[in-house]
Amino acid sequence: MPALLIASKWVEQTRIASYVANSAWLFPTLEVVHIFGIVMLVGSTAILDLRLTGHAFRRDPVVKLAKRFLPWTWAGFGVMVVTGFLLWASEASKVYDNPAFRIKLLMIALAGLNAFIFHSFAYHSVDQWSESSVPPLAARIAGWCSILLWFGIAAAGRMVAYI
Asked: Per residue in 71-127, pLDDT tens?
């Protein structure tokens, strides 16, 4: 038996995972809070990403939008990590082989890599292009990748229940 499957079965047996799985109200409540986290993260990143692609908020400096919306992004991400872990833990071995779940995790990793690359390279020179209505190509690519990945993550998350 693969180590990840063994770990998944172990996680399911923890007290909190069992409580989530066996509670009539906790799993659906966590799902609603998880969706709220998605709205916070995808909404705030969509604003920034649309600005990076040059398709919206062209008069607003990128730095100003980032300062205003990145706290919402991080808050939404935090909510999603906590609730997502609890939801996963309650049915870890069930989703172990689920291709939609694996695609979702892969896209989360790619979204993180995209953000890391953007902040490591293109954002370092943001003072030079923050007020430009059309950001440099690297920023536009990062914006489009982010939009596609986060909407893909949400879609894959919904598909987990149906595959």
From this structure: 999 999 999 999 999 999 999 999 999 999 999 999 999 999 999 999 999 999 999
10 Å Cβ neighbour count for 150?
A: 22
Domains of the chain: total: 1
Q: Which domain holds residue 15?
A: 3-162
Q: Please give the Cα distance from 149 to 24 (Å, whole number).
A: 32
CA–CA dist 150, 163 (Å, integer): 20
Give ∠ CA 134-155-73 in degrees, rounded to 5: 50
Q: The tokens of 49 are what? A: 């990403």
- 18-24: long-range contacts, CB 8 A cutoff, minimum separation 24: 18/90, 20/86, 20/87, 20/89, 20/90, 21/90, 21/91
